[in-house]
Specification:
Mean pLDDT: 76
Pfam families: LPMO_10
CATH class of the largest domain: Mainly Beta
Protein name: Chitin-binding type-4 domain-containing protein
CATH topology of the largest domain: Coagulation Factor XIII, Chain A, domain 1
Number of strands: 9
Strand content: 15-25%
Keywords: Copper, Disulfide bond, Glycoprotein, Metal-binding, Signal
Cofactor: Cu(2+)
Number of helices: 10
Number of domains: 2
GO molecular function: metal ion binding
Radius of gyration: 31 Å
Bound molecules: 2-acetamido-2-deoxy-beta-D-glucopyranose, copper (II) ion
CATH architecture of the largest domain: Distorted Sandwich
Amino acid sequence: MVFIAATFALLCLARVPAVLGHARVSSPPIRQPGNNFLQTCGQSSFNSVKGDPTGHIEEQEPVNAGCDLTLCRGMPFSDQPASNVQTVKPSQAMAMNIDCTVPHGGPANVSLVDTTVGGNSGAILGGFLATFDDFCPTTGPAPASQTNLQYTLPNAATIGNKCQQAGDCVVQLFWATPDFSQNYYYCVDVVMAAAAPPPPPATTAVVNPPTVAAPPATIARPPTTAPASVPTPAGVNMGAPIAAAPSAPVKMVTSAAAANAPAATNGTVFNAANANAGRRRARILWF
Ligand SMILES: *[C@@H]1O[C@H](CO)[C@@H](O)[C@H](O)[C@H]1NC(C)=O
Ligand SMILES: *[C@@H]1O[C@H](CO)[C@@H](O)[C@H](O)[C@H]1NC(C)=O
Ligand SMILES: [Cu+2]
């Protein structure tokens, strides 16, 4: 077994000198070893990951107590550069590019993992996003479905309010090779993008017109007498683009509102304050 492993390592060196590995995730960036990892897991683990960035967790033994190898090989988020965190959305299609530098075969799968719960290996959110029976197969080239691994993140209902904080969630590629009993964990840090911004006020034109369109028919007649019934249309009128309503009646509503308001109160200043309050209220409703 040692001999075989050594042979693989040599093969690996001959083919891709810069990479000592088995399955190398070339993109997006995966968790890297850093000083906090060194403190938590110990020198031997640290050296192992440094020596083989794509290696299996068994070669990282022994470790300090509290080092969870089954959660990103023990590498904490605190060591990761912020630029490595992928900002994503629920149901987003994603890809992982993989070089099968040393084929082993065996099952592998991809999942979104909440690292804040679930003990030493986190908790999978939803189901597996991709599964393979024979990953980086020992015979033949790795299929495109593995070297350019496509998957779709769980939907919003599944993710809920999790993964809002960078470091909480990772996309994990988990691969086990039955022949050598080697377990590989690769983690891509992901954070959910902020909720979509509120729609622009323009969309309210679609909502309001029914209310605006109705009054003009009744108001069209009494405009000359500065009706007392205007306050309601005035409130409605403020938020709604006036252009949407029939041209002639709208002008009357506008002027009637302006003319009527000072009469009902007693000054334009007071009225302006009222109008602003109305706009503020309307804005709150839209957002
Ligand atoms: C996921 O991958 C692991 C590691 O190879 C394997 O033990 C497990 O059976 C896989 N599960 C599924 C559902 O693919
Ligand atoms: C105008 O209205 C304000 C607010 O209701 C009131 O405080 C003020 O006394 C009024 N002024 C006049 C001249 O009516
Ligand atoms: Cu290997």
